[in-house]
Amino acid sequence: MTNRWNPLNTWFLLGTLVASIVLVPLHLYLNGFVWSEWIVCLVMVFMIGTAISAGYHRLFSHRAYRASAPIRFLWLVMGAASFENSALKWSCDHRIHHQFSEDPERDPYPISKGFWHAHWVWVMESTDKPLVGVTDLEKDPMVMWQHRNHFIIGGIFSTLPIWYGIAIGDFWGYLIIGVLLRIVVTHHTTFLINSMAHWYGTKPYSNNESAKDNFLLAPLTYGEGFHNFHHTWQWDYRNGARWYQWDSTKWLLKILSWTGLVNGLRTVSLTEMQKAKVHAEEERLSARLSNVRSQKRGVLEEHLLHTKERLVSCLSAMEQCRQKYKDIKIQYRKDPRSFAQIKTEWSLKVAEERRVLREAWRQWREIQKQIRMNLSQPTV
Ligand SMILES: [Zn+2]
Ligand SMILES: [Zn+2]
Description:
Blueprint: H1 7-31, H2 35-61, E1 66-67, H3 69-80, H4 87-99, H5 115-124, H6 135-138, H7 141-158, H8 160-167, H9 171-195, H10 227-232, H11 248-259, E2 262-263, H12 270-290, H13 296-331, H14 336-376
Antiparallel strand pairs: 1-2
The chain binds zinc ion (2 copies).
């Protein structure tokens, strides 16, 4: 680190924030609420934020899917308007963050240095670290073009609302709401992932990460709020993996995959997710049990471990059974008569595996309940 502060980043971040705090209320006071200014602001926020989430993050940093040239171009042009550096630099910092997220000396934005440091102080600090771990991106001419010109590209794209404002005779409104406020909102929604998503939430899949799932954050961050899932499977194109979890980037990428504009969406299986969840729950309960002095402790620990192992093995068996049945269906596609004969047999097999798995889940819930009840008593 050569300088404590990066003057450009510091003045830009603080200047845009202070200017919007002063000018937005003043503009509202003088000119009232103009719907179209706010709609343009929201559209710009959504487009540029999605370019960061789908482009800078899931495509360039994590290679969670493959994208055609028009989509890469779109993400790079709109992403530049976030004023969060080039895709190359952003991905370099982010890959280091994943690799060393629990090492405060190497993670560029470790939560262990505090909420505000992870949020934006790290951006204001000047570091002359070389670009590492992005040789794949350095081979992409489009990424390198954006790296060299991101200020000018971002400048042109983010001033689009002003041109519309001039055309309809409302320059100041579109400058303050459509450009200035938009920049501040884009910055701080992205920054919330590094601060809030490492600060507050649950850890369903991994206890070894400070990253947390926070469903309230997801709508504000285009689905990036499920950060514990993301740190566990960073190469998955989804962050909110379950169908009911808000992840607008995931939905958009799925739709784009139907058109062929993106492909190769990478996903972890539901079985792997369930196994990780069960393992994380077992770790947490074991840790709580280890603080308890009681004769029952050993029995409960053993029971917990045994129930977990049984459930994990049932999950694997169910997965294998489903896979085999799928393979057989493909194999017999050209011979429907023979398939009809073995269909009943396989349907029964799957049903039986499902029944065994249901029972293993029931026992797992039961042992958790039993341990929690014991833990809540003053002496176990
Ligand atoms: Zn993180
Ligand atoms: Zn990531």
